[in-house]
Design a protein that fits this description.
Number of helices: 12
Number of strands: 2
Oligomer: single chain
Radius of gyration: 21 Å
Distance between the termini: 15 Å
Number of domains: 1
Structural class: mainly alpha
Helix content: 55-70%
């Protein structure tokens, strides 16, 4: 008797819980700023709910679409070409916040670098499956010219374009996803060392030669040396987290969101969550991402083919890795980066991509053996 195809309820429930918590916290964190800038406390939450509805619809559609249809070359290369054209196209549009990161379509904005994450995952999963299946008959992961070079070629191009926007945080995130997928696919450890050795001087120059990035590093090392300047954001974030105590000051009662903490509804929304909901709220978020990681890794281990295995791994690394980076920044464990907290931070492009990717992951979990 054939088994019933059921999605992973743990993964589905954790995702919905994170989205619900995100919607509540976006409204709580943005209401004052929205009223000041747009005259309505609902300006940001209204947009976020529209993106959430679209993202959930896309997640449900992909959850019920066989993931193996995504490994068709027409899908893979069409996605790569569209994302590459968008990454190039942003340089011909007006800047937003002194960067070339968004494509504006009326009141909405699309961030191509977010789409690049999903395009990278699908391309690498497709390409590595071809090289590794059947095992032993083709060039292995140790063949640089026939495997690693063509695998990393499109990734390096997209990462380079994202660095030029400039968006070093997202570029690092994509590089991390690619390295994780290649390593699990069997890339020799020596190549990981080579990649790290090549990346260190490049990252060093990208930080040292760009004043605002250097200020962020110095603020991370010594935030108290300039509490009203470069160290202001990190100190205010730590004050918000510490003020919550065990149970928090109460929903909608945050003081740091009253124009003390910059980017309060985007990159630093976790600080407001900890202030209003306390340790219990912050621990709940960590627990939900832990469930996501557990079920994502399980789906990867039990996937029936290499494409499903690598796609599930890439999606899990994308979501959980981005969450860890954001939480580390908010807690003062890393220099400040413009990385949103998946499912919770305000931002349509990030929310949409995370939900679409989760839809693919849920479908892979249905086929898990």
């Amino acid at each position: 008797m054939p088994r019933t195809m059921q999605p992973d309820r743990w993964l589905f429930g954790a995702t919905l819980a994170l989205c619900l918590m995100g919607a509540v916290m976006v409204f709580s964190a943005s209401a004052v700023v929205a009223r000041e800038e747009y005259g309505s406390a609902y300006a940001f939450i209204a947009k976020q709910l529209v993106w959430l509805a679209l993202g959930l619809a896309g997640m449900l559609w992909l959850m019920n679409t066989d993931y193996r249809r995504l490994r068709e070359p027409a899908v893979i290369f069409s996605g790569l070409c569209v994302v590459a054209l968008m990454l190039v196209g942003v340089f011909f549009l007006d800047k937003s916040h002194a960067t070339h990161r968004w494509i504006r379509i009326g009141p909405a904005g699309i961030q191509p670098s977010e789409l690049a994450k999903l395009a990278t995952i699908l391309y690498l999963a497709w390409f590595l499956e071809i090289r590794l299946s059947p095992r032993g008959t083709g060039p292995g992961m140790g063949d640089f010219l026939r495997t690693l070079a063509p695998a990393l070629g499109p990734v390096v191009v997209m990462v380079g374009l994202i660095v030029l926007q400039p968006d070093l945080g997202t570029a690092f995130d994509i590089f991390l996803i690619a390295m994780a997928m290649l390593f699990v696919a069997g890339m020799p450890l020596k190549y990981v060392g080579y990649a790290a050795a090549a990346a260190v001087p490049a990252v060093f120059l990208l930080i040292v030669r760009v004043p605002y990035r250097m200020q962020r590093v110095l603020a991370f090392l010594h935030p108290e040396s300039d509490p009203q300047g470069s160290g202001f954001q990190m100190l205010q974030s730590l004050i918000a987290v510490g003020s919550g105590g065990l149970t928090g000051v109460g929903l909608m009662e945050s003081r740091q969101k009253l124009f003390y903490l910059p980017e309060v509804h985007t990159d630093f929304i976790f600080a407001v969550l900890c202030e209003e909901l306390g340790f219990i709220g912050g621990f709940s978020v960590l627990a939900l991402f832990t469930v996501y990681a557990w079920r994502g890794i399980r789906a990867a281990l039990c996937a029936p083919d290499e494409f499903g295995k690598l796609t599930a791994l890439g999606i899990t690394v994308m979501v959980v890795g981005q969450a860890l980076i954001n939480l580390s920044v908010v807690l003062g464990l890393m220099p400040t980066k413009g990385i949103p907290l998946p499912f919770i931070s305000y931002g349509g492009s990030s929310l949409m991509v995370m939900l679409l990717a989760t839809g693919v992951l849920l479908n892979i979990s249905q086929h898990a053996e």
